[in-house]
Amino acid sequence: MRHIYTLLLFIAVSTNISAQVQTAENSSSDSLLNVVAYFCKNDTTEYNFQHAKMKVIDNDTTMNYYCENEFRLIVRDSTSQGYKIEVQPISNYFENPEDSILTQLINKLANSMGDVPLIFTTDELGTIQHVENWREVRDFTRKMSKSLTDSLYALRPELETSVARQRLEALINMQFANEQAILNSFEELTIMFCLHGKAYRIGKNETDITSNNGYPQHVTSIVSYGKSSEDFGFDEDYFVRSLSETTVPAKDLGNQLIDQINMMSEHKMTEKERQKVESAIDEDAKVSLIEDYDIFFNGWPCDMEYTKVTDLKNVRNIECYRIQWTKRTWGTYGEGTDQEQGTDL
């Protein structure tokens, strides 16, 4: 349900969720940390997922968007080739402080329409490969988006003057048009498994790379072993931390904003309107990505945070994702006390 909120709220911020630390090369095996899944059939881990967007203007903070949900991951099959994992939604909550009607509508639909469990597969390392039931998820999402947009425009007919209902519905459906689009919409899975199958140089590292958007990026990372917590962690747990900083030219920002306005509106911008948008963005933006991944010794995600901070003039936009395990019931591969049954955080 929550995966269509961004479009419905007309938020024009593109978030690229991926670990910015670089896979180590030309390093000995002793200096590398390999992120590998060692799951067992019927392993079950429950998580709390939070996604928030805030704006800070002259030290005055406003919450623009907040959603929270609970879900569980269950390993349905474990083979030498990889894993089949089911995502079961437990609860959903959404809040838009600036629109109480939209908040009530989305929460009502989220709790009355139910959800279709998503089933995905990974390779033997835990890298996500496919969504097995993507067509079922796509069809359910189309039904849900139509119901939501019909209800929204019935309550807010004035929206039709800014964004035609059919256009908005089509834009939503495009986000779930195929397997890859559906996988991309599940931000929590992208964050949780983005490191699996990769190796990272242990210790503190600094490097200059090119971001996915093509801009120079400076990355500082720290990688090490250590208990995820004194009460619930294990000595073989590990973590990956990174901070990346990028400068986006003002001209590029203006062009992106104009493209988004043209995509959402029936009205084609005039040259005068374009110049007005371009003149309003006369400074470069500073973008910082703060990534913090704690992973259990067996590859299960433990506690993960991804924060994007965009500074433009006197405005700071903050987008934060947080995923934290709340309950685990793991199998009995291996011996000793490492495997715990039915443990709650």
- Contiguous helical run count: 8
The helix-and-strand class reads: alpha+beta
The shape, in one word, is globular
How far apart are the first and last residues' alpha carbons, in Å?
A: 26 Å
Topology, number of strands: 14
Amount of helix: 25-40%
What is the alpha-carbon Rg in Å?
A: 22 Å
Q: Which stretches are low in confidence, meaning pLDDT under 50 for 5 or more residues running?
A: 1-22, 333-338
Determine the strand fraction and express it as a percent band.
35-45%
What's the rounded overall pLDDT mean?
83
Descriptors for this entry?
8 helices, 39% strand, two-stranded antiparallel sheet, 345 residues, alpha+beta, 12-stranded antiparallel sheet
What this model shows, in words?
The chain is an alpha+beta fold. It has 8 helices and 14 strands. The chain has helices at 5-8, 100-112, 134-155, 165-174, 179-185, 187-193, 250-264, 271-280; strands spanning 32-34, 44-57, 60-79, 82-95, 118-123, 128-131, 199-201, 203-210, 216-225, 238-248, 285-295, 301-312, 315-329, 343-344. Strands 2, 3, 4, 5, 6, 8, 9, 10, 11, 12, 13 and 14 form a 12-stranded antiparallel β-sheet that branches. Strands 1-7 form a two-stranded antiparallel ribbon. Strand 5 (118-123) and strand 6 (128-131) form a beta hairpin. The longest helix has 22 residues, at 134-155. The model is unreliable at 1-22 and 333-338 (pLDDT under 50).
